[in-house]
Amino acid sequence: xxxxxxxxxxxxxxxxxxxxxxxxxxxxxxxxxxxxxxxxxxxxxxxxxxxxxxxxxxxxxxxxxxxxxxxxxxxxxxxxxxxxxxxxxxxxxxxxxxxxxxxxxxxxxxxxxxxxxxxxxxxxxxxxxxxxxxxxxxxxxxxxxxxxxxxxxxxxxxxxxxxxxxxxxxxxxxxxxxxxxxxxxxxxxxxxxxxxxxxxxxxxxxxxxxxxxxxxxxxxxxxxxxxxxxxxxxxxxxxxxxxxxxxxxxxxxxxxxxxxxxxxxxxxxxxxxxxxxxxxxxxxxxxxxxxxxxxxxxxxxxxxxxxxxxxxxxxxxxxxxxxxxxxxxxxxxxxxxxxxxxxxxxxxxxxxxxxxxxxxxxxxxxxxxxxxxxxxxxxxxxxxxxxxxxxxxxxxxxxxxxxxxxxxxxxxxxxxxxxxxxxxxxxxxxxxxxxxxxxxxxxxxxxxxxxxxxxxxxxxxxxxxxxxx
Length: 469
Known about the structure:
The chain is globular, with a radius of gyration of 22 Å. The chain contains 20 helices and 14 strands. A five-stranded mixed sheet has the order 2-1-3-14-6. It is an alpha/beta fold. The longest helix is centred in the last third of the chain and has 27 residues, at 442-468.
């Protein structure tokens, strides 16, 4: 199988992009442990400019003997999600004796991508790797990951059974390069206890206007100090640009067009940005925090938008009953997909590529996709999985987990500005921090963001033309 080699220019661009990226929290990172007793007036975590996230301890490496082919898998999850990821590898190793997978935790999505960039230079690559929605495309352009269709045929992998909206995001020129695994959507999370105390109906708001009517009933102040917000915004380091994307669509705007024309200055995109600024300032019922899930669990805020991948951990750790619902509407309904998928490095030897594909086929087969979804809250990536008796019974007992599955048909792939432009997520996220925290003029900030995204897109467009014509 002929592979493209990384040119000096492409590798340099990837290294520059990787070096400039802050280490962000994974899109569905596990919820931190809640305090044993919630403080009477919990203080939100500080929310300055994003800083590098502390390293998390790696799960124990899974290792057994007797396999025919030994391969290395680089993963990105810790805590509850790391335990589930490690259990997946263990089940695979115990299910057969042809392939032995060694699990190696690499840190966050960004840390994993940066280490992969370095490994490509040093020629010490893994054999299969978890790559996030904002990273796999850059490695595709650089020829660093292989097309998977031939390997899929060898292991009899049925692409027709994958959720199309999730599978198609990893397809370029009718070839599959990135297989959905830990895929997510945002959900509206709310604290049912606080909802009941405020006399609100036990559901998510249907529109932002409706939530605006509810919000004052959820706010708690001590003088002019907000001690409990109705709603929590994350920082740029916690993927505010991912969550705000749906809000932009809801207002009729978008980050960019498919041809990489940036639309941050579109009137509807500006309207969405002004709405986010007003929630924290003019309206005063929202606040921006450093650790979104932790502050929701500890009662700093009554509601938030967060990943389906956090659902299991938040449900387990929260000292209150958690409610979830579809994202609120405005002019339209808008919700994006997110998360991570599995890829195989192009320079992995042929024998190990086949072994890696056997692991991908196992980790995303209907049975294992169900186990992963039930253990984590991530989307079942196989159509047959959500229809299985096991998942139907699970949904009946855990209706929150079904909400994301019901919302999935209404989602759409993300704008190129965030997922295809190098550091696009951070460029947009920093702009949102400026308008929310610094109260800078939305039109001016988004104009600067638009210009920065346009400049950052130029080498991507150039490389895309070179690769795909």
